[in-house]
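ok posting inputs for the zinc ion job
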Amino acid sequence: MGSERMVKYKMKITKDNVFYSFCSRNEQAVRVDAPATLDFETMDCFGNQLRNPEDIMEEINWDRINPATGPVYVNGAEPGDALKVTINSIELNEKGTVCCLNEEGILGARIEGSHTRVASVSDGKVHYEAANGLKVDIPVKPMIGVIGVAPEGELNINTGTPGKHGGNMDTTMIGVGATLYLPVAVEGALFGLGDLHAVMGDGEIGVSGFEIPADVNVTLDICKGRAQEYPVLETEDYLAVIVSKETVDEACQRATELMQEIIAERTDLDMPDIVMLMSLLGNLQICQIVDPEKTVRFVFPKKYIPGLMF
Ligand code: CA
Ligand code: ZN
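and the output
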């Protein structure tokens, strides 16, 4: 979508600019005026340390996990604003990695040791091959695992953890064509992204998506005074609130409340109708349940309520 137009204005933030926690004290990689269209060169969540079948997890440097590229200081972004992030394109590397290991993920107790599979990506498919020879071609559905802004004050949230600032939300809907609205908490927002997945199932039950380096093109803009408590995502057809909490139950409760509040703000529907329509048409969906906080989304189809948008 519009890739011709985007290519003309090419500011690229390379993987030489990475950070490992979202924090107001991070040194900015670049400073831009909004709106700004930027390319981000990202490493995979292993810091590109598991790129070949012989690379083993026991030898990786765990200080280099979950690098995010950035941060970008957006001139004029202030606490209370929403940072509007339009995802224009994602170009995947030609190979990636998936892993599982003992004591990690939902089935971690049933796995001994650690295992990785490296697979190529071509013709829009991941060419996965199991140890028994089964070949599975999986259509890619590229998504951004880590995307966010610095949290308030001196808070320092590692890039493996999701929250109000965004971060490691591991949400399959965060892909090309989606617009994410992040609550700005510090001057300049300090935006960054990384941890691309060529494909992932909701839940990310084995603790890994198909982890892959990528180039991501986004447009950043500011919506003055429009911050919501948690990130909100909009596509052509859907509005979604993405909430991370210690438990899935708590995340479901807050995501549902926030969607109700947004619908109430945007329409003159009364509460019983909002609840009934949300009950009939809205979907609570799991994003991931393997990170330090669990992430869910409440997704509502926009077409049934005129004027429903971010
Ligand atoms: Ca992740
Ligand atoms: Zn990942």
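notes: Residues 93 and 214 are 5 Å apart (CA to CA). Residues 45, 145, 195, 197, 209, 211 surround zinc ion (ligand 2) (CB under 6 Å).
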